Structure to design on (647 residues):
């Protein structure tokens, strides 16, 4: 019996009980659809988030300083952003160090009309780090420090001021409860988002100005790049050594404490405060941590979906057991005309698998649809990967065989004479 | 075909029922034999043993010199498909399949390709005079026509032995006689036909009658 014929025979038998077949197919559809939807949504969300994490490249290191957690305000004054970034950049394995501070304000764009504004305080190095260049005017310069000057991202410029030449114009911005007039010195070329930095939609001002306005000269974020990917661990170690030394210098009057002593002191500070005065996060670690949590999420959700598939499989088994009893006489007829036990086993198993394959295919389509809707709602890309079809086929085959084998085996063990006499 | 000291026991719940208590019966090629006896005498059981639908509890069943009594189930199935054709009182046709598909069933299990199956099944239907009704389903056919489809199915693999269990039991006498004529035609071709019946007119139609009573041959020895 060829495959095409088996399919036709199987479909014929299933078609004879449309409602029943439909319901057992539905059980598989729901299970497979749930699995496919979960996998495709997680893949989409993963692609989106890992795009953000990877954006700046694997050699990126992010440092956050919280000096006031362990230092008095007076001591913390030693943590000026420019100074720190200079010291960090001096480390052998560090190529780039850019301080970033961000806040939100409102731009006045008309009488009584304001528009929300994301403001980044940074230095001239920011443009180099993001490979981000001005279309009009120029980017920030060290001589701008402390001045009310502003550079606009390309999209922001168009949204706020429309197309055209904007350099030389003034923009009134409410920042930290103050109203300031910023002089626009540049508009950038469009760059697209880099990692989770929407560089085109932000305004850039000198970091010193922002710190002055906020009164917070101590909190800051630094984006660093190791000289190359293999140097990331080395760079992290050097950064930690520099920062540890800096904290030690500021907390002790004796300049002789160094080396292991400094490490112990920082350890003690961390242990007593339970708060690190700084964090150093290599992008690579973030990627690994993220992948780890994605895997865990996939396993948990996949497990739940697999349970629903299991329930669908039990439904199939139930239906097939009923079908075997109902079709006992048919089995007898087939046996009397030369069907071997293996033929009968194959026939019923094939029907169960067919139900599952049909359910699996429909479930795949439904799951993809759900995944596409999820992608639209969650605003992440819809990823068409080979994993969902592989899952759909593998699981429906597995369920069909696992739950079809016992009813099929029962049918194949029937005694032909008893089967023929069955009413 | 011969049975030697064949016995068959069934379990009915706790009780063991001996349907056959030691039967010796020989059937020569070309025989037209009627197995008669009251119901419960074991005549159907004997027929099932002869065709490999059952294995004897003890004793032997020989078909073409081969002892089939200890054949594994798959081997028995092969034998049923190729050497034996069964005809039953209730026809036992697949209700959702056309006449020609029913006739083609043994050819399918014997492994013939699709085109050959249809051709040969149609030829067998022609043979029993049902060529024009090949695509009808059993529900659209009369009892006599159904039984002729069943005979065509029994002939599909060209078996030397045709076993019929009360083939006229569901038919009126006139149709029954037509069926018997068909069987006689098969005997004339050199096939062996064994018919289980309790109707005297059927038994009278055959060349040889063997009567069973309580699981034994009434005259003790049927080796003839």
């Amino acid at each position: 019996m060829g495959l095409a014929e088996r399919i036709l025979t199987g479909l014929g038998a299933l078609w004879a009980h449309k409602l029943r077949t439909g319901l057992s197919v539905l059980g598989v559809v729901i299970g497979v659809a749930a699995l496919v939807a979960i996998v495709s949504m997680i893949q989409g969300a993963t692609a989106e988030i890992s795009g953000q994490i990877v954006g700046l490249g694997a050699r990126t290191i992010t440092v956050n300083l919280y000096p006031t957690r362990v230092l008095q305000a007076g001591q913390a004054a030693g943590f000026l952003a420019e100074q720190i970034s200079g010291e960090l950049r001096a480390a052998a394995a560090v190529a780039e160090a850019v301080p970033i501070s961000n806040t939100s304000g409102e731009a006045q764009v008309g009488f009584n009309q304001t528009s929300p504004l994301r403001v980044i305080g940074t230095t001239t190095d920011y443009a180099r780090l993001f490979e981000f260049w001005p279309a009009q005017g120029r980017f920030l310069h060290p001589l701008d420090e402390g001045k009310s000057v502003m550079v606009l991202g390309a999209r922001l410029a168009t949204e706020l001021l429309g197309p055209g030449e904007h350099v030389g114009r003034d923009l009134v911005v409410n920042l930290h409860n103050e109203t300031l007039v910023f002089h626009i010195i540049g508009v950038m070329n469009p760059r697209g988002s880099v990692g989770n930095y929407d560089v085109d939609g932000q305004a850039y001002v000198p970091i010193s100005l922002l710190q002055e306005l906020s009164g917070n000269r101590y909190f800051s974020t630094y984006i660093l790049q190791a000289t190359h990917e293999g140097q990331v661990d080395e760079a992290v170690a050097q950064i930690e050594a520099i920062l540890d030394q800096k904290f030690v210098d500021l907390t002790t009057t004796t300049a002789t404490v160094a080396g292991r002593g400094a490490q112990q002191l920082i350890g003690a500070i961390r242990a007593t405060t339970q708060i690190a005065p700084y964090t150093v996060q290599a992008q690579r670690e973030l990627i690994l941590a993220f992948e780890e949590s994605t895997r865990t999420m996939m396993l948990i959700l996949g497990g739940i979906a697999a349970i629903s598939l299991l329930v669908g499989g039990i439904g199939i088994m139930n239906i097939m057991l009923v079908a075997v009893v109902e079709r006992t006489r048919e089995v007898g007829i087939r046996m009397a005309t030369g069907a071997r036990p293996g033929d009968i086993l194959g026939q019923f198993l094939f029907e169960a698998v067919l139900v599952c394959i049909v359910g699996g295919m429909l479930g795949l389509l439904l799951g993809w649809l759900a995944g596409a809707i999820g992608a639209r709602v969650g605003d992440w890309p819809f990823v068409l990967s080979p994993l969902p079809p592989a899952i759909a086929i593998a699981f429906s085959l597995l369920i069909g065989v696992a739950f079809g084998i016992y009813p099929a085996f029962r049918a194949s063990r029937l005694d032909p004479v008893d089967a023929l006499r069955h009413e | 075909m011969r049975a030697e000291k064949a016995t068959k026991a069934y379990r009915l719940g706790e009780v063991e029922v001996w349907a056959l208590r030691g039967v010796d019966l020989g059937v020569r090629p070309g025989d037209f034999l009627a197995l008669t006896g009251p119901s419960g005498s074991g005549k159907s059981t004997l027929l099932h043993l002869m065709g490999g639908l059952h294995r004897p509890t003890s004793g032997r069943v020989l078909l073409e010199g081969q002892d089939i009594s200890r054949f594994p189930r798959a081997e028995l199935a092969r034998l049923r498909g190729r050497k034996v054709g069964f005809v039953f009182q209730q026809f036992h046709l697949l209700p959702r399949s056309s006449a020609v598909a029913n006739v083609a069933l043994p050819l399918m299990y014997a492994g013939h390709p699709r085109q050959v199956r249809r051709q040969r099944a149609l030829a067998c239907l022609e043979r029993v005079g049902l060529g024009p009704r090949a695509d009808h389903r059993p529900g659209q056919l009369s009892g006599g026509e159904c039984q002729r489809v069943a005979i065509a199915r029994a002939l599909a693999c060209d078996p030397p032995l045709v076993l019929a269990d009360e083939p006229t039991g569901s038919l009126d006498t006139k149709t029954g006689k037509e069926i018997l004529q068909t069987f006689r035609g098969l005997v004339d071709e050199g096939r062996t036909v064994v018919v289980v019946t309790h109707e005297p007119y059927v038994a009278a139609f055959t060349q040889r009658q063997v009567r069973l009573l309580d699981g034994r041959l009434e005259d003790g020895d049927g080796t003839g």
